[in-house]
């Protein structure tokens, strides 16, 4: 959105995240402009890593870079505990500001990264294609891996509880990179830690969204790990994915983000197919299968939202 790009000319991504007035402004921008049905907190999944002792920056045209990656048992031991109310209070203040501004108009969704995805950033030092260092730590030093994942799971559960206490009405756990794992590795190295977070959050009484990409081989395991809503990406038909996670839970998805760059008739065709697969059953949140792409025309997003509303209401 133009409004966001204007802010980014003046502020770094971290500055936006750490300034509650600005983060609240960015969170609210899509609500009136696009007519979406919920607000999602503007933040970054890496924010909890800084108070743990991690030095990071967002490098232009490269993305996040971690200057002291985690590779050894001593590195894991040195990670500090996090007190969200103090160390991440700027995020919680953003939540409170947004809730006040929304005034019940739409709900607010908070979020955090999942342990595996954050561990991968920590170990690789940034983006990766093959996750070589991450997998080597799992295979060569599983006890070190599990200590790292335990620390992350504890930090993330505390962080999400704090967001909920501040006013988030649902929370989403992003496991954007977990699709690089086979089912056996997911069950052994990831599932127990992700499940612990969902178990810790159950008492909070809000919807818990479990989101991953490239997870067509992992859906049953994601359900086992926990959540009340499951994200389905565009690589699997919505009805098949819903059947596999269970029709007793909700799903969100699953338009390919690239489809929003297509001509409007193509977008309409794909939206209709997803709604047809959902079959009008309660519990479907129409969404993209992953994040929106920077090149996406804003008017295409607005048209997609309007079309979903119209077709869901049964209006031709």
What does this structure look like?
By secondary structure, this protein is α/β, with parallel strands linked by helices. The chain has one domain: TIM Barrel (Alpha-Beta Barrel), CATH 3.20.20.210. The chain has 15 helices and nine strands. The strands form two sheets. A seven-stranded parallel sheet has the order 1-4-5-6-7-8-9. Helix 7 (115-124) packs across helix 9, helix 9 packs parallel to helix 11 and helix 11 crosses helix 12. The longest helix is centred in the middle third of the chain and has 25 residues, at 142-166. The two termini are 29 Å apart.
Provide tags for this entry.
316 residues; alpha/beta; TIM Barrel; 7-stranded parallel β-sheet; two-stranded antiparallel ribbon; 15 helices; 51% helix; globular
Q: Quote the beta fraction.
A: 5-15%
* CATH-defined topology: TIM Barrel
Low-confidence stretches: none
Number of alpha- plus pi-helical segments: 15
Q: What gyration radius follows from the Cα positions, in whole Å?
A: 19 Å
Question: What's the CATH architecture?
Answer: Alpha-Beta Barrel
How many domains is the backbone divided into?
1
DSSP E strands, number: 9
* Tertiary shape: globular
Biggest pleated-sheet summary: 7 strands, parallel
Task: Output the helix-strand order.
Answer: HHHEEEHHHEHHHEHHEHEHEHEH
> Termini distance?
29 Å
How much helical structure, as a percent, in the residues? 40-55%
Question: What structural class results from the helix and strand content?
Answer: alpha/beta
Strand order of the largest sheet: 1-4-5-6-7-8-9
Supply the CATH class: Alpha Beta
Mean pLDDT over all positions: 96
């Amino acid at each position: 959105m133009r409004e966001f790009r204007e802010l980014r000319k003046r502020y770094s991504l971290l500055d936006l995240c750490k300034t509650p007035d600005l983060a609240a402004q960015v969170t609210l921008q899509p609500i009136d402009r696009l007519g979406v049905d919920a607000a999602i907190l503007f933040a970054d999944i890496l924010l909890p890593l800084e108070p743990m002792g991690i030095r990071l920056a967002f490098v232009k045209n490269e993305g996040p870079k971690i200057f002291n990656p985690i590779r050894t048992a001593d590195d894991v031991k040195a990670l500090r505990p996090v007190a969200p109310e103090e160390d991440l209070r700027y995020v919680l203040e953003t939540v409170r500001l947004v809730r006040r501004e929304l005034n019940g108009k739409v709900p607010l969704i908070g979020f955090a990264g999942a342990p595996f995805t954050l561990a991968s950033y920590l170990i690789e030092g940034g983006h990766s294609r093959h996750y070589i260092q991450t997998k080597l730590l799992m295979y060569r030093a599983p006890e070190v891996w599990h200590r790292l994942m335990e620390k992350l799971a504890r930090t993330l559960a505390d962080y999400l509880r704090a967001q909920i206490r501040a006013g988030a009405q649902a929370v989403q756990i992003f496991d954007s990179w977990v699709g690089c794992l086979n089912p056996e590795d997911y069950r052994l190295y990831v599932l127990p830690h992700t499940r612990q977070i969902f178990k810790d959050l159950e008492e909070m009484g809000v919807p818990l969204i479990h989101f991953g990409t490239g997870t067509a081989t992992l859906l049953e395991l994601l359900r086992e790990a926990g959540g009340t809503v499951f994200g389905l990406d565009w690589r699997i038909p919505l009805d098949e994915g819903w059947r596999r996670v269970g029709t007793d839970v909700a799903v969100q998805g699953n338009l390919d983000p690239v489809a929003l760059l297509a001509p409007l008739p193509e977008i309409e065709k794909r939206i209709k197919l997803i709604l047809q697969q959902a079959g009008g059953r309660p519990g479907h949140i129409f969404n993209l299968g992953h994040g929106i792409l920077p090149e996406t025309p804003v008017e295409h997003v607005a048209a997609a939202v309007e079309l979903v509303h119209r077709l869901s209401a049964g209006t031709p």
